[in-house]
Amino acid sequence: MTATSSKPAIEIVDLTKEFTIGPTTVRALRGVSTTITSGSFQFVLGPSGSGKTTLLYLLGALDRPSGGSIIVDGRAINELSQDDQDYFRRHEVGFVFQSFNLLGNLTALENVLAPFFPVGVSGELRKRATDLLDHVGLANRQQHRPRELSGGEQQRVAIARALLKQPKLVLADEPTGELDHQTGAEVMGYLRGLREEMGTTVVVVTHDESYIDPGDQTLRLRDGLIVTD
Q1: Nearest to 84 by CA among 64, 66, 68
Q2: Tens of pLDDT along 171-211?
Q3: Rounded CA Rg of the chain
């Protein structure tokens, strides 16, 4: 097992995010400050509308905050240029979403490789993708298309795709939301196992607290504020 470092992978300082909807301003995050330790398994909890997914999108530089800072390995990612944010997303962050986001006309292996199609797929990269699918239990399903895979298998393809870039950070938004509990537990187990082997920091947004193990870090939000940390 990879030991969890005491050095924070992510420092979140007085983070705010506001959305304007017609005449109304929605304060999705209202001054969130916390740290996420390198190599940890971090759950973000809270009811719908609490700001969980907003926080996850800001951590992945999919959006910019209205105020405050997100510091990853000494860099304030919210202050990076657009090109540098694109590089951060493309090379340092793996995303796993509830809806899998697989391309129906591609095989499992091709879906894992798809983010690299624009820049070219080397033999070494294809081998790593094959090994990852093997590692998540899909050695015999690599040439199957999404419609031929179960929900749990599709989510494991999505996890392999997220990990192919060997990211420092994996962000998972309700990764078990469309799965039954047993399948969800298996998917969460794969995330845990891969985190332990690679030392990747994993942040999971979920409504289901039954997946939390002793030793996991938890962050609970309500109305855009931390209520427990």
Answers
A1: 64
A2: 999 998 888 888 888 889 888 887 888 888 999 999 889 99
A3: 18
**Domain assignments of the chain as residue spans, ordered by start:** 38-56+79-228
Determine which helix (DSSP H) or strand (DSSP E) holds 10, and give its type and residue range.
strand 8-21
For residue range 107-166, list pLDDT tens digits in order: 999 999 998 898 889 999 999 999 999 988 899 999 999 999 999 999 999 999 998 988
CATH number of 38-56+79-228: 3.40.50.300
Cα separations (Å) of 164 from 182, 196, 214? 25, 16, 28
The answer to whether 94 and 162 have CB atoms below 8 angstroms apart is yes
CB 226 within 8 A of CB 50: no
Report CA torsion sign: 89, 90, 95, 97.
positive
DSSP 200: -
What would the 3-class secondary structure string for 175-226 be? CCCCCCHHHHHHHHHHHHHHHHHHCCEEEEECCCHHHCCCCCEEEEEECCEE
Contact 56, 171 (CB under 8 A): yes
